[in-house]
Amino acid sequence: MRLPFLDRWLKREPPKPAKPKYAPRRRRVLVTDEDDDEEVRPPHQGFLSDRRSMFILIAALVAIGLTAGVMLIERRLASTATDARADRPAQVALGRTLYRQQCSYCHGTDREGHEDWRPTTPIASGLSPALDERSPIVDRSDRQIFEWIKYGGQPFLPSGTRSQMPAFEFNLTEAQIWAVVAYLKNRWPDEVLARHELANKREP
Ligand code: HEC
Questions:
Q1: Count of CB atoms situated within 10 Å of the CB of 108
Q2: How far apart are CA 174 and CA 169, in angstroms?
Q3: Mind listing the pLDDT tens digit for each residue in 157-191?
Q4: CB-side neighbour CA atoms (13 Å) of 14
Q5: Which of 102, 106, 145, 172 for a ligand 1 pocket mutation test, highest count of atoms within 8 Å of Cβ?
Q6: Which long-range contacts (CB under 8 A, 24 or more apart) does 33-42 make?
């Protein structure tokens, strides 16, 4: 089956007509622009031999370069961020790594919390709460979650109770804590995120 498009793409020239046995007498021909079409291109000499494949290569290199540039900028933003955005992939990815290292031991690999924890469990019970969409942190602002991670649970619990939640002030930079917050928010469904936005408006 002949696919003219593919042939052109692969630069496979259609077979040349056999040379006539006796060369016709040379005649001077006035070449016009109309004559200058595909068929009279110079013979194919490899993939990069013509402008079109060169153009494709350069376009591909530019695209790769731009993508790499955007990724680097995103990473840089993630490591200097001062807020938590669930829709910033580089920040969420950084947060996921940190969460696995620092938090999953108590809060579960998938933010599910201690197996005996229920949404009705009192805060100072010593059981690690879920941090997914069932969590009480949905109704706390980004800043409150950030501070809880930074300073640990003790300053926020009723007096006379002992927090099991360590402070990460000296283990994580502020940008890293924001990244963890972005990761926690990342998989909350839209309606939960909307509820959380109300908390952000209430307590910025
Ligand atoms: C040693 C276990 C442990 C580790 C590690 C831990 N937590 Fe906690 N976390 C808890 C417990 C237990 C609570 C419940 C309150 C308390 O005891 O202070 C809590 C509470 C919280 C809360 C507040 C929940 C609320 O009701 O507002 C957040 C947010 C939180 N943790 C996030 C994290 C993050 C993020 C990390 C990792 C950077 C982390 N925790 C690491 C045990 C832990």
A1: 18
A2: 8
A3: 988 999 999 999 999 999 999 999 999 999 899 99
A4: 8
A5: 106
A6: 38/8, 39/14, 41/13
Q: Is the pLDDT of residue 63 over 90?
A: yes
Q: Which of 37-41, 103-107, 123-127, 176-180 is the least confident region?
A: 37-41
Q: What's the CA gap between 199 and 156, in Å, rounded?
A: 17
Contact residues of ligand 1, CB 6 A cut-off: 102-103, 105-107, 123-124, 126, 128-129, 131, 136-137, 140, 145, 148-149, 153, 157, 163-166, 168, 180
Instruction: Write out the two tokens for 127.
Output: 């059981």
Per-residue pLDDT at 59:
94
- Per-residue confidence (pLDDT) for residue 7, from 0 to 100: 67
**Residue to substitute in 112, 165, 171, 188 for testing ligand 1 pocket (most ligand atoms within 8 angstroms of CB):** 165
Give me the pLDDT at residue 149, please: 97
Say how far apart CA 151 and CA 174 lie, in whole Å.
11
User: If pLDDT is split at 50, 70 and 90, which confidence band does 139 have?
Assistant: very high
Q: How far is the CA of 157 from the centre of ligand 1 (A)?
A: 12
